[in-house]
Write a structure and sequence with these properties.
Arc Repressor Mutant, subunit A, 2 domains, 72% helix, mainly alpha
């Protein structure tokens, strides 16, 4: 039997236990950093939340910063993983674009920790994620999904052929992210309950119209 034909080796008991410990620390760190931020999240808080020990954090992640970078990478990975489950290949381009935009906005609402983690890292001017060796690779599949939809739409004559997938991605992300991350202060400023379901639906309809107008020929 050739090496290529051999079945993949199953991880042993120790390997599974090590991965379970690492995953538990990562989940606990996500919760702590999302609530307390990078500066307020302490190693001892995370190890306690993970039912682990401080030394295990240093063993698997090297430092508190290394753990925070891993948390950010995992947040991006989960977003990409969820987006990759979208099947837009059989939908017409307009409905496919609606699905992509709706997914992004819905993901922000369902995963508020994603918003708070990114907000916190932006307060640090991207100092930590800038050291990641993997962060940039997560943007490629996200843009590729949108590019495929735009190409199909341009081929069908329903989208402009000169729309940048990167620019449209930023537009969709900005419209949803800003509303979600600033909904409390905006509600006080405008005197409206922006988190109410009918207000969220109203904003999504407005955003979708803006997106479709942007790509329309």
């Amino acid at each position: 039997m050739t090496a290529a034909a051999r079945p993949a080796r199953k991880p042993g008991v120790r390997e599974r236990a090590a991965q379970a410990t690492r995953d538990s620390i990562l989940r606990a760190a996500t919760r702590v950093f999302a609530v307390r931020g990078y500066d307020g999240g302490r190693v001892e808080q995370i190890s306690k939340a993970a039912n682990s020990y401080d030394r295990m954090i240093y063993y698997y992640f090297g430092s508190k910063e290394g753990l925070f970078i891993a948390v950010l990478e995992e947040a991006y990975r989960r977003f990409n993983e969820a987006e990759s489950e979208l099947d837009t290949s059989h939908a017409d381009p307009v409905h496919a674009l609606q699905a992509v935009a709706g997914f992004m906005w819905g993901y922000y609402r369902k995963h508020p920790e994603f918003i708070t983690l990114l907000n916190n890292e932006n307060l640090h001017r991207g100092r930590h994620i800038g050291k990641s060796l993997r962060a940039a690779e997560y943007s490629t599949p996200a843009i590729a999904v949108l590019q495929a939809v735009l190409d199909r739409g341009a081929g069908a004559g329903v989208f402009r052929p000169d729309v940048s997938a990167r620019d449209l991605y930023l537009m969709i992300a900005a419209l949803g992210y800003f509303y979600q991350s600033n909904r409390y202060t905006l509600s006080a400023f405008l005197g409206e309950a922006l988190a109410a379901p009918d207000e969220v639906a109203r904003w999504e309809t407005f955003c979708l119209q803006a997106v479709l107008k942007t790509v329309a020929p």
